[in-house]
Amino acid sequence: MVDANQVAELRRFIEQLKSNPSILHDPSLIFFKEYLRSLGAQVPKIEQTERDYEERAETKPSFSPKHDDDDIMESDVELDNSDVVEPDNEPPQPMGDPTSEVTDENRDEAQLEKSKAMEAISDGKFDEGIEYLTKAVMLNPTSAILYATRATVFLKVKKPNAAIRDANVALQFNPDSAKGYKSRGMARAMLGQWEDAAADLHVASKLDYDEEIGTMLKKVEPNAKRIEEHRRKYQRLRKEKELQRAERERRQQQEAQEREAQAALNDGQVISIHSTSELEAKTKAAKKASRLLILYFTATWCGPCRYMSPLYSNLATQHPRVVFLKVDIDEANDVAASWNISSVPTFCFIRDGKEVDKVVGADKGSLEQKIAQHSSSK
Fold first, then answer.
1. Active-site residue, 348 included
2. Catalytic residue selected from 189, 203, 302, 344
3. Is 305 noted as a catalytic residue in this protein?
4. How far apart are CA 54 and CA 44, in angstroms?
5. Which of 131, 174, 194, 336 could be 144's S-S partner, Cβ–Cβ 3.0 to 4.6 Å?
6. Strand stretches in the chain, DSSP E
7. Where is this region: Disordered (predicted)?
8. pLDDT in tens, 254-302
């Protein structure tokens, strides 16, 4: 069974929402608004005069960032929280219906209730003052000054969330309400929302500066600046980590490509080439691995080639870091034609995809000398 008192409270809250839908945009009710949207309800936005409070509350990152997977270590921000209070989580205060018609009689009655409120407040009877101001708000629900005034009284009784709700409504009706910005800034300072508090108080000081705003800014700005410095430090460290991660991934990718290339080069063996595409693949692999490549053109009917082939295979075992390729000009005549081979045996030396030297004929001494020369050079 649902508790009857809870049902009654819920019914009263719904009635308040009907009379003033702007209550839904209070930051403390974001969870309820999201629940309504999850059921398919459409929650209209209410324009904010300086910024959309809802979007700030839902999307603005906290000043104390979480560590990422690389554990960026951040020192805690040292803030002066001596004046911060526990947030008030009471049901939203009654708001007037802005769509209702306000007569001159209503305005006069609202002014009378406000006067009673001021008298009660001067006697230190803040709760009584709030009651009078609430009556005034209900009589004249489009008066920005009434909401802003009630917000200042909520500050006196340490109810910053209630003050913010009233200040938000005051600023909806009067975007230039210095009192609205001032009370909201002071309420945010009570909650430790230092950056938002500083922003509101700066706007208030431009609209109508007073000593109380200046005094509050002196308390708020040091914390706001520390938070901003902390955020910049974190962003700088995060950027450094991202650059380090990108460089690490680049090196890993390069090493993987080099390993793949080396695996295709058959260290210490002579690789037979049967097509232009095979030659291109081996040339690219040798280039990636920064290897010297030797291209040996031969033919089965060539006597000098039969003499050089065993020597060529032996040299391959002696120089495992050199890529030894062999092309039969009759089998792969397209390869021979692309290299303009007119006689065999011919040995072409290739570095970084370009021919750097050549040996034509069965000249064992020249072949060994050039292999030694080019395999040691970079």
1. no
2. 302
3. yes
4. 11
5. 174
6. 270-273, 293-298, 323-328, 346-351, 354-360
7. 47-109, 238-263
8. 777 667 666 667 778 999 999 999 999 899 888 888 899 999 999 999 9
